[in-house]
Amino acid sequence: MEAARIIKKLKSLSSPxxxxxxxxxxINPQKALGINIPVLRKxxxxxxxxxxxxxxxxxxxxxxxxxLASMIDEPEKVxxxxxDEWVKEFNSWDxxxxxxxxxxxxxxxxxxxxxxxxxxxxxxxxxxxxxxMSCLAWHDKGTKxxxxxxxxxxxxxxxxxxxxxxxxxxxWALRQIGKRNKNLNKQAxxxxxEILKMENKTARWIALDAIRELxxxxxxxxxx
Length: 224
Description:
Elements: H1 2-12, H2 16-24, H3 37-47, H4 51-58, H5 63-72, H6 80-87, H7 93-102, H8 110-118, H9 123-139, H10 145-149, H11 152-157, H12 164-178, H13 182-196, H14 201-214, H15 217-223
C-alpha cells in the first residue's frame, strides 16, 4: 500500500513540459513523469531506507519511481541477482547513472560487477560498468590504487565503442579515476595517450577530452 501511495504522489507531480526537456538531454521520455532529482531526493529522505519498498517501487516501471527506488534501497540487502536484474532494465543514461551512484557503488560486489558489465554487448549494461567505475573512483575513499588500475585495460579495450552512451561513460571513468590522486592521474594520462595512438575516431575523442582535463592546471593543482 505504501508503494501505491508513493506512486500516486509522484504521478500527481508529473510535468509534460519537463518530460519534453528530458528528451532534449537524451533521456528516454517513455515511462517518465518529468520530476526533478532534488524533488526525488527530498522524498527519499522523508521515506528513509527500505529495501522491500524499493523492490516494490522498481516493479512500477516508471522512470522516476525507479530512481527513487535506488535512493531508498539498503545496500547491505541487495543481492547479486538484484543488481543483474535491475541493470538489464536500464533504458536511459540517467537511470543507469543514478542507480550506480545512489546504490550500486555502495555494494561490495560493485568491483566485480563493474568489470563483468563492461563485457556485455548491451549498451546500457556496458555503460553501467563504466559508470560504476566512475562512481567508485568518486565515492570510495579507502580503496588502494591497484584496484583502479585493473579498470584501465577495459577502458582501453572499449574506447572504440562508438555508441554515444558508452563512449561518454568510458571517458567519464578514465577522467574520474585520473582525478583521484597524483599516481592515478599519471597512469590515466598514460592510458589516454595509448588510446590516442589507436587511430580511431571515438577513441581519439575519449583520449583528447581526458588528457585536456587531466593535464589541466586546475586538476594538477588539486593533486599536489
